[in-house]
Amino acid sequence: MNVLNFVFPGALGAISGSFLATVIYRLQRGISLVGRSKCPYCGCVIQFYRNVPILSFLFQKGRCAYCGHKISLLYPVVELVGMILWIWAFGCLDVENAILFVWVSSVLIVIGFIDGEYLKIPLFLMLLAACGIFVAVVVGALEWRMVLVGGVFAFVFLSGVRAMYYRIRGVEGLGFGDILLGTLIGGWLGVRGFLFVIIASSTMGLMWFILVSIRCGWDRNRKIPFGTFMSAISIFYVVMKFYFIK
Length: 246
What we know:
- The chain is an all-alpha fold and 246 residues long.
- Helix content is 72%, strand content 0%.
- It is built from 8 helices and no strands.
- Helix 4 runs antiparallel to helix 5 (123-139) and helix 5 crosses helix 7.
């Protein structure tokens, strides 16, 4: 990979990550996605030269240049993740699959953070990812049979798990948003990828539940941000598949 192949997608990825962080912060708070960035504490408009992804956070030592309040780590983390994913995608995949990967993974990043904080998965975000998958099928980046079989299998499987859990305990153990997200992932990754994501996400969810229970006390009805784990594992699976699964 030459310098241009490294710098250009990295810059676009960091800029994309900055936008995604803004969406994550504003969406569930009812703040318009249109408009200049402002400090959420003092309300000052952030000038463009103080809004450079990653670098501004470092140069300002993680604080607002106007009021000195700490800037949320959400921004540099998502910007860094975006930069890394774009560099990897356009350095390792063909153009069609790289675009599909950054599109779907960007949506999953937003879903992951929102579900982690609010335990909600906005439907329109999944529709955005589904549109990307549909376009990928049209241009031949994904095989339509794999998408159809993977999506149907995931929906039936998760619906069955939800029904079984409700029959045993009398409460819903899996939200409908998780089922739709799983269906989306099944269509993107196929049956094998979906099963890997479900097993790994369930394991991570169990570990998270145990750790939180140790720290905060036992609560058998504590909700698990399953969408967060599914989103993260799905992105990891694509990268892992490139290197280890043929």
